[in-house]
Amino acid sequence: MSKFKYKIGDEVIIVANTSGHNYRTGDVVAIVGRGTTFDWEVKRPHDYCSWYLDESEITGIMSPDEEVENIFTSLQDAVGMADPESGPIRYDNVSKPAHYNHGGIECIDYIRQVLGKEGFVAYCRGNLVKYNHRAMYKGNPVEDLEKAEQYLKWANETLKEIHK
């Protein structure tokens, strides 16, 4: 029996970075080969480059509900972000990226506070233009268009608050 839990072709989720790879916690990557110094060679869909990392830095994708719950609960426990009453915080790359949630406040909420409602609407409209413009040229066009849609939603919600 192999000492490794995963095999080439498996999709896994990044849960740590001890080897110095270029991925963020929560990124989904595919195992594309074996490493010599590190256990696995992995890459994201649509990336040209791959990185080497240890098996301890990834976790498998089993059932979406169970695996995501386990990953985020353990990550949030590790950094003290799990709420004992409401449970783990749910992240997704479009409306609540994990890398924008540090220091006790979500980045988008901080931006909203600093800019005020009118400034926040302008910020959202600018990001809407950005994500629409680059969608077909960078990484994942579906995700970029979903991000554009999210900024439109935030702008509309804020405009409704302004124009009650």
Short description:
The chain is α+β, with helices and mostly antiparallel strands and 164 residues long. The chain has two domains: 11-90; 105-162. The protein is built from three helices and seven strands; from the N terminus they run E-E-E-E-E-H-E-E-H-H.
Radius of gyration: 19 Å
User: How many helices in DSSP terms?
Assistant: 3
Order of helices and strands: EEEEEHEEHH
Strand content: 15-25%
Q: What is the chains' assembly state?
A: single chain
Describe the structure.
The strands form 2 sheets. This protein has a 5-stranded antiparallel beta sheet, with no helix packed on it. The chain has a two-stranded antiparallel ribbon with strand order 6-7. The protein is of the alpha+beta class. Strand 2 (28-34) and strand 3 (40-43) form a beta hairpin. The chain has helices at 64-79, 107-134, 141-162; strands spanning 11-14, 28-34, 40-43, 51-53, 58-60, 101-102, 105-106. Mean pLDDT is 79; it is low at 63-68. The protein has 2 domains: 11-90; 105-162.
